[in-house]
Amino acid sequence: MSYVWTIAEQSKGKIKSVSFELLSRGRKLADKMDTKLSSILLGSNVTDDSLQELIYRGADNVFFVDDPRLENFIVETHSNVLSDLIREYKPHSILAAATSSGRSLMPYVAIQVNTGLTADCTELDIEDGTNHLLQTRPAIGGNIMATIKTPDHSPQMATVRPKSSRPLPIDTTRIGKIIRLTLKDELVDNRVQMIGFRKDDEEFVNIEEAEVVVAGGKGMKKQENFAILRELANRFDGVVGASRDAVDRGWMSYPHQIGLSGKTISPKLYICAGISGSIQHLAGIKTSEHIIAINTDPDSSIFQLADFGIVGNLFEVIPALNKRLEDYKREGK
């Protein structure tokens, strides 16, 4: 069919937001090739309204394999099902999210269908004249951006960082097909079953879903100074982030790291202090709605992306901002 496919994700019957982000990526590719975009969902107990939203967000078709045995993500079974669909429908390219499940699923599938896979892509495009999928991702420790293509095997497959693009707005005028498929018994790997779920003991920081992120970099000078950022973040019910420099120095733990080597975020408000703005960091924050940067160097790269920049000493600016917000709260505004 030469369709573009995106892999939707669900949890307990609810479609995850990253599914809609992928559709915005896939829509651009499909339009450039003048072909259709399909969303592939493996799961159980997903409502018709939820499936319809995939169409409203950009899909032309939704292939839904609905079975209780697919409710929990088990890579052996899910990869068998997806590979079977690929052999039957022969898509041009497949995009999945670089989530824990996407990073587990797609390597399995690549081996099963004998094709290539580019992980953690930040940009995607279609090559003029060949229709090859151009997959751009950081390489050599994030020091360069490499563009990769798979000219001799199909489908062409890539995983994409969550929060690296925004979902398309809901368009209720869009019309598409919801195609329900039956799970083939022979595709179920009965050797593996989920017996429970346990969170990692490490401090849980859901920085990717936060609406407000306040981050610090090398300019914070020491770990104790992050307290002023924590105070500011708490005033917005936000979370604290950090640049790779700050994490490498042990001032913050890895779950707080923002950038190509950490998390890609898309908050409503991003405030950063003491971060110069390396290309790796900018790639991790570029979809933020509003960016406020504080730095003593007026030529810092961060100001090229910021909506509002403050050239000044962060140890003067942040405390003053905290005080003003406290006064504002006290005045009942």
Would you give an account of this structure?
- This protein is of the alpha/beta class and 333 residues long.
- The protein has two domains: 4-187, 3-Layer(aba) Sandwich (Rossmann fold), CATH 3.40.50.620; 212-330, Rossmann fold.
- The chain is built from nine helices and 17 strands.
- Strands 7-11-6-1-4-5-12 form a seven-stranded parallel sheet, with helices on both faces. Strands 14-13-15-16-17 form a five-stranded parallel sheet. Strands 8-9-10 form a three-stranded antiparallel sheet.
- Helix 3 crosses helix 4 (100-113) and helix 5 (226-235) runs parallel beside helix 9.
- The N and C termini lie far apart (58 Å).
- The model has no long low-confidence stretch (mean pLDDT 91).
Helices and strands in order, then pairings?
Blueprint: E1 4-7, E2 10-11, E3 14-15, H1 18-33, E4 37-43, H2 48-56, E5 61-66, H3 75-89, E6 93-97, H4 100-113, E7 117-121, E8 123-126, E9 133-139, E10 144-148, E11 156-160, E12 177-181, E13 212-216, H5 226-235, E14 239-242, H6 244-248, E15 269-273, H7 279-285, E16 290-295, H8 302-305, E17 308-311, H9 314-330
Helix pairs in contact: 3-4, 5-9
Low-confidence stretches are none
What is the domain total for the residues? 2
Q: Main beta sheet, described?
A: 7 strands, parallel
Query: What is the residue-averaged pLDDT?
Result: 91
Using the coordinates shown, work out and report the CATH topology of the largest domain: Rossmann fold
Helix/strand class: alpha/beta
Strand order of the largest sheet: 7-11-6-1-4-5-12
What general form does the structure show?
elongated
Residues in helices, as a percent range: 25-40%
User: What proportion of the residues form beta strands (DSSP E)?
Assistant: 15-25%
The top level CATH class name of the largest domain: Alpha Beta
Q: How many beta-strand runs? A: 17
Distance between the termini: 58 Å
The sequence of SSEs as H and E is EEEHEHEHEHEEEEEEEHEHEHEHEH
Number of H/I helices: 9
Radius of gyration, in angstroms, nearest whole number: 22 Å
Tell me which CATH architecture of the largest domain applies here: 3-Layer(aba) Sandwich
User: CATH superfamily of the largest domain, please?
Assistant: HUPs
Cofactor: FAD
Binding site for FAD: 243-244, 257-261, 274-281, 295
Domain Electron transfer flavoprotein alpha/beta-subunit N-terminal: 4-191
InterPro entries: DHS-like_NAD/FAD-binding_dom, ETF_a/b_N, ETF_a/FixB, ETF_alpha_N, ETF_asu_C, Rossmann-like_a/b/a_fold
